[in-house]
Amino acid sequence: MAVQGAQVVSRVALVLRLVSESAPRGITTAALARQAVLTRPTVHRLLVSLAAEGFVDRDELLGTWVLGPELYLMGSVAAARYDITTVAAPRVQALARETGESAFLSARRGDETVCLLREDGSFPLRSFVLFEGVRFPLGVASAGIAILAYLPENEITEYLDRRHLEVERGAAHSSTVVRERLALTRRTGWALNPGLVLEGSWGMGAAIFDGRGLPAWALSITGVEFRFATERRAELGRLLLEHAHAITQALRGEKTQRNRLI
């Protein structure tokens, strides 16, 4: 029996997110079914329907699915409201240049952060945990820790009660440990990820705030562990906060200008 209503929408959204996360290589129907915890025939039907509307494309040579042209067109329209990469890109580049580490811009999307930009620094040893399109739950990577730390307390509590990060990510993400990490972030202003996603790959992040004063994006840097020694973190944190604050101020200036034009 065909699945109806909201469940169909939820499944379509899940399929599109998984295809997006597989970029640029794409994903097979079988792999998508496993990750979505859906039957292969169900996933195949959804993909064929999405392809007919231009939301996904199939690479016949590789047998994988990728995002389609219709999403590009929709994204171009949405970018006028939500895209901050034009404002943030020079800051991401400067952060990579000044620190030598890989620098990133991530956006909050519901319970997750999505990496939007990556700029590699000059240091030859790099971490490839983060790349454009990858998603992490809030409170896991440094960008998500920085964002979660500055959400209203009731939202933090509701999220931690609902998401069960300890089950998903292990004991280092129990509610108690995450809260300690959030408290430290609020004291220093920047978040530290001590190899939580991949052993030996450390990161630091700082939140960027929207016009309501809520954390909606984050700047972050990642690299090998010895590059984040205690004596260096203060300088890295200062640079992160400096560039994140500059983006926040630039976005507030853009909002003020738009309001004057209305």
TrEMBL record:
Pfam families xrefs: HTH_IclR, IclR_C
UniProt keyword Transcription present: yes
Domain spans labelled HTH iclR-type: 6-69
Record carries keyword Transcription: yes
GO molecular function, a single term: DNA-binding transcription factor activity
Domain IclR-ED, chain residue ranges per copy: 70-253
GO biological process, one term: negative regulation of DNA-templated transcription
UniProt keyword terms in alphabetical order: DNA-binding, Transcription, Transcription regulation
PANTHER family to which the protein is assigned, alphabetical: HELIX-TURN-HELIX TRANSCRIPTIONAL REGULATOR, ICLR FAMILY, HTH-TYPE TRANSCRIPTIONAL REGULATOR RV1719
Name used for this protein in its record: IclR family transcriptional regulator
Organism name: Lacisediminihabitans profunda
